[in-house]
Amino acid sequence: MTRIVPQPLAMLSPFQSFFMAGFECATQRNARGKRLDMLATTRHDRFARQDFQRVRALGLTTLRTGVRWHRLEVRPYRYDFSILVNYLGAVRESGLQALWDLCHFGYPDDLDIFSAAFVDRFRHFAAAVARVIAEQVPGVPIFCPVNEISYWAWAGGDAGKLNPHARERSFALKQQLVRQPGRSGGHLCGAAARALSGH
Asked: What is the pTM of this model?
């Protein structure tokens, strides 16, 4: 008979610290159609190294942040990762563990979120980003493929508060958002990875 030895919660957790820092990374178009870019608005994209020092000073070792799909995919299936690589350098230098949002309400303007192309483009984008992160930052990467699926389905599919500014399409939007890559995490970058629920 195999004896199961209880492990302390800290040994089971994938996170380096129980309390975490977070940098808002939403990129949706709001109800007026204006593109938001919260990493730029908060100037975290310019002052990441200083921000990470402040996180360390608080005794935290884990943070949540994200990538900006609309900035990185310069045309369909073609990416410019230069701003991401610079940001990853700051993460690497800090020694902090980062949890990565891959789609935080925003996507390229030329995409119809209800189309098959959305799913295919996001699958390719997520895999490409995951490879870059795995190459640039040590440790097992942790991803949230799509942030807050249920909220986005309501706000974008019924309430018209953010893209795609639809009405009475929340179920259809939720169906699209769950057709995402890497639900199990491991095949996002062809290596060990973890995926968090975006709900």
From this structure: 0.87
